[in-house]
Specification:
It is a single chain. This protein has 347 residues and is of the alpha/beta class. Helices cover 33% and strands 13% of the residues. The strands form two sheets. Strands 2-3-6-7-8-9-10 form a seven-stranded mixed sheet. Strands 1-5-4 form a three-stranded mixed sheet. Helix 5 links the parallel strand 7 and strand 8. Helix 2 packs parallel to helix 4, helix 7 packs parallel to helix 8 and helix 8 runs parallel beside helix 12. It is globular, with a radius of gyration of 20 Å.
Amino acid sequence: MQNENIIKGQGAQRNVINRFDRFTFEPDDEDFETTKTTFTEVFPKTIVNKVKSEDLPMEYSMNPYQGCEHGCSYCFARPTHEYWGYSAGIDFERKIMVKKNAPELLEKFFKKRGYKPEPILLSGNTDCYQPAERQFEITRQLLKVCLDYRHPVNILTKNAMVLRDLDILKPMAEQNLVSVSLSIPTINEDLRRKMEPRTSSSKNKLKAVEILSQNGIPPHVMVAPIIPGLNSDEPLAILKAISDAGAQSFGYTLVRLNDTVEPVFVKWIEDAFPDRAQKVLNLIRSMRGGKLGDKRIVERMKGEGNIAEMIHNTFKIGRKKYFEGKEFPKLCTDGFTGTREQQLRFF
C-alpha cells in the first residue's frame, strides 16, 4: 500500500543535503506540494560536451536544460544539480535552468576549425523533451541547426512530445541524420505513474515508436533502468511490444544509485512501495556488491550476482526472439560541410 502522505507527481519527496555545502538550512514548514516549478536562464559558454567515459557509446552530448521535471527518483543526473548550489532532491525537479543560447552555441561549435563530425546525443543528462520544452522550444531550435548543417544527432527522451517535431525529423531522416531513442522501462501504467510520474504514458510512448517508424525515423528503445522487484518481470513483454511497434533495436541498463541519488530513491521506494521496499533495496545490493551504487567503469553497466545474470539472460532471449535480423542504422556524417544550408521549408 502506498504511503498516503506521498507527494503525487513527484519522484523526490524531500530535498537532500548538498554534498558540497558546508552549512544547510531546511525550514520545518516548507510545503513542497505547493512549490511551483521555476525556470532560470543560464548562460553557458558551450553546449556540446565531450563524453570521456569508456563505457558510453557516444562521442558528444548536449543538454538544453539542467534539472528535469519528469520526476524519476532513480535519475543518475540528480547529483549534477548540486554543482549549481541546489539539492538533488525536489530542487532537481522544481528548479530548472534553461539554456536559451544553446542554438547559437551549437552553430559556433560546428564552425570550429578542424571539427570532424560525429553524432551528438541530444540529452544524455536531462531530458530534452521534458515539459519545459513546450514553453521554450530549445530542442526544436537545436534540431533546426542540425538540419541546416546536415549534422547527425541521436535523440534520447521519455516523452512522446518528440512527435511535435516530425516536420524537422522527417527531412533529417531522409538524409540519415537522426535517430530517436525512447526510454520505456515499463508498460505497466500503474507502475509508470509512480516510477516516472511526469513522463508520457506507456501507451503514448509505444504509439510514438510506431509513428516514428511509419515516418522513416529509426526508433530505438532504452528499457532502462531495470529495477529488480519492480519491473524486472517485464523485459520480454516490453521487447515484444516495442518490436511490434516498429523499434529497430533496444538497449537496457541496471539501476544504480550513486551519491545523492541513493537517499532520494530510498525515500521514494519506502513511500511508494512500503510493503516491498526493503526487498527491492536488497535485490539492488545483490547486484552491486552489497551497495546501492557502483562507479566502476564497465562493471557499473553489468552488475554482478545471480539477479544481474538472470536479467542479462532474459534480454538475450528477447533479442533472439523479437529482434533477430534487425539492425540499427549508422548515421551519416558525410553531408556535413561546416556551413549553414537553409532548407526550403523555411521559405
